[in-house]
Design goal:
Structural class: alpha/beta
Distance between the termini: 32 Å
Shape: globular
CATH superfamily: Ribonuclease Z/Hydroxyacylglutathione hydrolase-like
Number of helices: 7
Largest sheet: 7 strands, mixed
Length: 279
């Protein structure tokens, strides 16, 4: 595999809607309307996401972050003219823990063997990390729950869904019947360990899942942040039942260490929840 030919993988998931996979590490999604386009998340910033976006649309692009973690905000620098939208609750994550080249190298070292295995891939993808530390301003426009963003005969509706982070947000595209869920709903979800292993964060996440399911007549699939591209919406019910069981005590997980995950985990159907995660 020639390093210079490694590019984001493009998959059309609906009309004028694409997944831009950052070497199967993390997904960004591009949704084009008649007037402008929305880029939902930007990956770690490995390779030039902006160039890939411009291959697909010449319309103005606005960036919508599902949350402030560096593996979703790290590619902002490749589209310096694009405004960034994010929930205020994740401002600390966004400004105090930005994507850096050190973080990108660590991410490649720990994630590539799991998500993009293959001889030489760690070295090839590491070579795509910028030589100079990208400029990072930390500026954004605050999103509020229920905000509607007009793209031109197409809208995105923000749903505040805390749990994975305080400012996690999903974007509902009822026209394409897709919910862009970031890390709120994936094959495997991480909730960080709480003081005294209390259930506060599980309860918060459970309420977010209920909010998503209340909109289930408006979408069929979820466009997810990692480990695949699309999931049927039925997985939301699995997570609802799983978190409900953890809250009432009918489900009890156990401590495990798998890949880069370490912590207490429980599973039900398609759902896997690391609900007291140390790493």
């Amino acid at each position: 595999m020639k390093m210079q030919k490694m590019k984001h993988e493009i998959t059309e998931i609906a009309p004028n809607t694409w997944c831009l996979s950052e070497f199967r590490l993390v997904n960004a999604f591009l949704a084009e309307g008649k007037e402008k386009a929305a880029l939902i998340d930007t990956g770690c910033g490995i390779g030039n996401l902006g160039e890939t976006v411009k291959e697909l649309t010449q319309k103005p692009v606005e960036i919508f972050l599902t949350h402030g973690h560096a593996d979703h905000s790290g590619g902002i620098y490749t589209l310096p003219q694009s405004p960034v939208y994010m929930m205020k609750e994740d401002e600390k994550l966004f400004q105090e823990m930005p994507a850096t080249n050190e973080m990108r190298r660590f991410y490649v070292k720990t994630r590539v063997p799991v998500r993009y295995p293959g001889e030489g891939n760690v070295e090839a993808i590491t070579a795509l990390i910028p030589e100079q530390e990208p400029e990072y301003t930390g500026e954004y426009t605050a999103v509020k729950d229920g905000d509607i963003f007009e793209l031109g005969e197409r809208t995105l509706t923000a749903l505040h869904t805390p749990g994975h982070s305080e400012g996690s947000v999903c974007y509902l595209d009822s026209q394409s019947r897709v919910l862009f869920s970031g890390d709120t709903v994936n094959h495997s979800i991480i909730l960080m360990r709480q003081p005294d292993n209390d259930k506060r964060l599980i309860r918060i996440y459970h309420e977010s899942l209920k909010k998503i399911w209340e909109q289930q007549e408006k979408f069929d699939r979820l466009a997810i942040g990692h480990d695949g591209i699309l999931l049927d919406k039925a997985i939301v019910k699995d997570y609802l039942e799983l978190t409900g069981g953890l809250l009432d005590g009918s489900i009890v997980g156990k401590y495990e260490e798998i890949g880069f995950r370490k912590g207490d985990v429980a599973r039900l159907g398609q759902a896997e929840l690391w609900y007291q995660c140390d790493e």
